[in-house]
Amino acid sequence: MTRAPRRDGVDPVARTRSRRRALQAVYAMQLSGVDASNAIAQFAHEQANEVADLAYFEDLVRGVGSHRKALDAALQPFLDRPVEEVDPIERAMLRIAAYELQHRLDVPYRVVIDEALKTVKRFGSEHGHTYVNGVLDRAAAQWRAPEVQAARA
C-alpha cells in the first residue's frame, strides 16, 4: 500500500526515521564529544538507506549542536534536576524536541511532543516517556503559548 504524499511535501514516516537517527547522533555527541558534522557523517549513510529525510536529520543534529547551551538553559526551568543528570537518551530527545519547538515552527507542537514520546518509548527507559511528556508539555505551553491555547480551546 502506498501513502499519498502530503500537500506540503513532508513525508511523516521519513521525518520519524530522521528523528530516530538524530536521537542516536545527539546521544553519540553527548557521550563521545564529537561535533555535529562528525555525528552526521557517522549516521548519514544509514539515513540514506532508510529513506529518511536527510535534510531534516542534519538540521536537527546541527541545530542541537549549535544551540545546545541555549536549549539546556531553556529546558532547565521545566526539569527537576540539572540537565546533565537527566538520563542520556531522555536528555538527547529533550534537546531535539526543544530545538524543534523553538526553531521549527513549521512543525506543530503536538507533532513534536508525540514524536518525542514515541522515540523515547522505543529507545529510552521504561518510564522515560512520562518524564519527557511532562517537561515538553510545560515547555510548549510557554514557548508556543498561542498555538497551545488555540488547540486547548
Overview of the molecule:
This protein is mainly α. The chain has a single domain, classed as NusB-like (N-utilizing Substance Protein B Homolog, Chain A, Orthogonal Bundle), CATH 1.10.940. Helices cover 73% and strands 0% of the residues. It contains seven helices and no strands. The protein starts with 11 loop residues before the first helix and ends with a helix. The mean pLDDT is 91.
List keywords for this structure.
N-utilizing Substance Protein B Homolog, Chain A; single chain; transcription regulation; NusB_RsmB_TIM44; transcription; NusB_fam; 153 residues; 7 helices; mainly alpha
Give me a quick take on this structure.
The chain has seven helices and no strands.
Class by SSE composition: mainly alpha
Largest sheet features: none
Order of helices and strands: HHHHHHH
Overall number of structural domains? 1
Give the CATH class.
Mainly Alpha
What is the fold named in CATH at topology level?
N-utilizing Substance Protein B Homolog, Chain A
Low-confidence stretches: none
Query: Separation of termini?
Result: 36 Å
Amount of helix: over 70%
**Silhouette:** globular
